[in-house]
Specification:
The protein contains 14 helices and 12 strands. The chain has 430 residues and is α+β, with helices and mostly antiparallel strands. The strands form 3 sheets. A 6-stranded antiparallel beta sheet has the order 11-10-9-8-7-12, with no helix packed on it. Strands 2-1-3 form a 3-stranded antiparallel beta sheet. A 3-stranded antiparallel beta sheet has the order 4-5-6, with no helix packed on it.
Length: 430
């Protein structure tokens, strides 16, 4: 059957007339293309970095030691802080991805602080009643720290020296009262470029986090993007596996029939009665959860429905005259199933595909929500929903996550309905 034959073209035209399904397909394809770009859009490494006249591409090169960039650290620098230092010193520049946070990166939300008209320190939320303000090194460590009470320095001021934090000055009522030691000439007057720490979950708009952070300090946008990439990877593995098992067994049952069909039906009945959730809990207690293990478990429980549907379609096709003629001409069983049975079951295969994907998205999200899915370090929409349940005041966790999950499932269902309309036999007879 040609992809450009009149019947196929008619089906494609009917699919396009289903506007919700057509635009949902285009939207999912566009999101999938963006997900393939990965670190070019969402990541903590610069796209281009130029330091002291040397140009690098950290997004492709990976880990770069701070000493290679003229810093005093062996580890990888915080590039967002490094950008400020390079601009201040005139040593170079860098270009970060549109979302400069990685999905697995634990971020400390440290917005800049300013003084009000009375000279009191305040962060974006307002006056700092009790907290700390500090300056930062390029590696993210603190250089100088001041304790703030009612917007003014109070108590110890500290300096990071030789890897240890030591008190170097005393403040009272915002005034410097003592230097430690007395001969210290460090400028302890808080100046520009100071920050404060806001605990997570952090509301949107602070320190470059468009949708805020979750309770672990992960950027919500990066986490949602990483969760979609994880679902896309799961679909790429899950669908070929479940369709490989379901199509093979379903087509064989419908084609051979007899005792082979009878035995497999009894096996499917027994297997389908195993409680799925209890099986997941039992296996999760024995094995360390991972994407590969979850996909293997989901495939083991998801092929039955597809095999039953394909069995019914294959049973009807195997009774056709062209199948009988192929047998009489000496065609082998594998050739008949591959060349005649499966192509004539294309309606079942294509119309069930979106709903299999829908079940995968729902199952992975539900397992992560219940705590039996991916490890907490992996981005997951279900884990975000679990955090939203524990932090009802953090609406920025629940709203975007629920919107992404519901929107994705609605688009997948719309594609499935459009495919069913396109392959509806009653419409083909009109």
């Amino acid at each position: 059957m040609s992809l450009l034959d009149p019947i196929t073209l008619q089906r494609f035209a009917r699919f396009r007339r289903h506007h919700a399904g057509w635009w949902s397909l285009l939207a999912l394809l566009a999101l999938s293309v963006l997900a393939l770009l990965g670190p070019l859009l969402v990541g903590h490494r610069p796209l281009i970095l130029q330091v002291d006249g040397v140009t690098r591409f950290p997004v492709f090169a990976g880990h770069i030691s701070g000493r290679e960039l003229g810093l005093k650290i062996e580890g990888e620098p915080n590039y967002r802080l490094l950008a400020e230092e390079l601009k201040r010193d005139g040593r170079g520049w860098l270009i970060m991805p549109p979302v400069p946070f990685a999905a697995d990166e634990v971020c400390e939300v440290m917005p800049a602080v300013v003084r009000d008209a009375q000279g009191r320190w305040q962060d974006p939320r307002g006056l700092i009643a009790e907290g700390r303000i500090f300056s930062l090194n390029a590696d993210g460590t603190r250089r100088q720290v001041w304790t703030i009470i009612n917007g003014r320095p109070e108590g110890d001021a500290r300096l990071l020296a030789d890897g240890a934090t030591v008190a170097r000055a005393k403040f009272a009522g915002g005034e410097l009262t003592r230097r430690v030691p007395a001969t210290d000439r460090t400028d302890w007057a808080p100046g520009a470029g100071l920050r404060t720490l806001i605990p997570s979950p952090c509301p949107p708009g602070l320190d470059g986090h468009w949708l805020g952070t979750d309770e672990s300090g992960h950027d919500i946008v990066a986490r949602l993007f990483g969760g979609f990439r994880m679902l896309l990877l799961a679909a790429v593995i899950f669908l070929p596996c479940v369709y490989g098992v379901g199509l093979t067994l379903g087509a064989a049952m419908g084609y051979f029939g007899g005792w082979f069909d009878l035995v497999l039906q009894r096996v499917m009945e027994v297997w389908s009665n195993i409680p799925f959730l209890y099986a997941i809990i039992f296996l999760a207690s024995l094995l360390e959860p991972s994407l590969a293990i979850l996909i293997l478990i989901l495939v083991a429980f998801s092929w039955i429905g597809l095999a039953q549907q394909l069995r019914a379609a294959a049973y009807q096709v195997s009774a056709r005259d062209f199948v009988t003629a192929s047998r009489a001409l000496g065609a082998g069983h594998a050739r008949i199933i591959w060349s005649h049975i499966l192509p004539n079951c294309a309606t079942v295969i294509l119309t069930t595909l979106p709903f299999s994907l829908h079940g995968l998205v729902f199952s992975l999200s539900a397992l992560d929500y219940l705590g039996f899915g991916l490890p907490p370090t992996e981005p997951s929409w279900g884990d975000l929903l679990h955090q939203a349940k524990e932090n009802w005041h953090a609406w920025w966790i629940l709203g975007p996550t629920l919107g992404c999950l519901v929107g994705t499932m609605v688009m997948i269902n719309s594609i499935g309905e459009a495919l069913q309309d396109a392959f509806d036999l009653r419409r083909q007879q009109r």
